[in-house]
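Saturday, quiet lab. Running sequence design on the structure tokens for the scaffold JK sent over.
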């Protein structure tokens, strides 16, 4: 079978937001990181700001709970930061940014649906991500399906609709679309961080719940906003000493990137079947946060774009370092 390809430009913002800080300050910081996309001429490419002149993304991905920080210890602590479904400050920022750049924006936020009471500590709240189109329209609201222990600390409920899947219309020029313009429809599968792991860390590793969902739903692009911890969170002191030496140059957390790829084994396996059903590439986008929270929680950073190819190979297209904030933007073929 011949491989059909179409260029797609993906961007990720890797940011270090701490819970308990001013959300608007985090938003201003994100705007500063994005400034090269919104100004002319754009800044030169650097290790933490990988934007080439003239690049504009089709899809922009931010981390899980991007502007609020992640490690909330209780429902009381997160209550002031909860946002109404698809209408809070995170969504409003996504709408403004989508319209300014002319792209789709995906950002994680803490969701309080209508009817949930903050004062009475009642009703479900969620770890969510909103998808906004280039016109500023809210297209989709996803609620994290597999909860991590940190989500349960602040009372998050599991999204009962399973993992996310939606189609996005991308104009071939990368700009706004209308019904009569030349556009490409891509299938996006969406999850949040822990969704990539075995359920509750109790399911067999080889069950590959999220990876199999991506294959069943014929994903073109798999997008995961994350607040993924560094591997050294669970290491002994001796192991940490060795890791610290490797971190001096602020390289990506390669063990984490490798693990993400392993968790998507079904995506690779589909291309190795005798009767290959999918001929186009599949793209994986990990939009992670970085830094240290509460003086002890270290995040893996390493936001990256992987390409699963129709020859059953996996290619690392681009990645950011473990520790540094910045913007990654790169072209892929789907």
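Result came back. Writing it out in full:
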């Amino acid at each position: 079978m011949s491989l059909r390809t179409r260029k797609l430009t993906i961007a990720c913002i890797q940011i270090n937001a701490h819970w308990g800080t001013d959300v608007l300050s985090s938003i201003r910081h994100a705007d500063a990181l994005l400034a090269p996309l919104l100004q002319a001429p754009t800044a030169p490419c650097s290790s933490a700001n990988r934007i080439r002149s003239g690049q504009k993304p089709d899809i922009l991905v931010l981390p899980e709970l991007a502007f609020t920080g992640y490690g909330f210890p209780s429902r009381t602590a997160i209550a002031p930061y909860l946002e109404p479904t698809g209408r809070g400050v995170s969504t409003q920022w996504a709408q403004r940014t989508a319209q300014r750049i002319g792209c789709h924006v995906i950002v994680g936020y803490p969701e309080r649906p209508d009817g949930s009471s903050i004062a009475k500590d009642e009703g479900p709240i969620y770890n969510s991500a909103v998808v906004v189109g280039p016109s500023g329209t809210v297209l989709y609201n996803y609620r994290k399906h597999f909860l991590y222990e940190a989500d349960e600390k602040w009372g998050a409920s599991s999204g009962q609709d399973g993992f996310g899947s939606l189609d996005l219309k991308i104009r071939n020029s990368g700009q706004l679309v209308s019904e009569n313009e030349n556009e490409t429809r891509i299938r996006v599968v969406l999850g949040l961080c822990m969704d990539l792991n075995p359920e509750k860390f109790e399911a067999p590793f080889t069950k590959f719940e999220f990876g199999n969902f991506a294959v069943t739903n014929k994903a073109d692009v798999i997008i995961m906003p994350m607040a993924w911890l560094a591997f050294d969170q669970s290491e002994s002191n001796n192991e940490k000493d060795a890791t610290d030496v490797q971190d001096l140059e602020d390289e990506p957390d390669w063990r984490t990137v490798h693990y993400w790829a392993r968790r998507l084994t079904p995506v690779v396996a589909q291309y190795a079947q005798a009767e290959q059903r999918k001929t186009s590439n599949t793209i994986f986008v990990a939009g992670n946060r970085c830094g240290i929270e509460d003086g002890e929680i270290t995040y893996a950073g390493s936001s990256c774009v992987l390409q699963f190819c129709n020859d059953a190979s996996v290619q690392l297209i681009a990645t950011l370092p473990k520790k540094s904030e910045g913007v990654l933007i790169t072209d892929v073929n789907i």
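Notes for JK: Confidence is low (pLDDT under 50) at residues 40-49, 174-180, 236-243. The helical segments are 23-38, 75-78, 89-101, 149-153, 209-216, 237-246, 254-262, 265-269. Ask whether to fix the surface positions before the next round.
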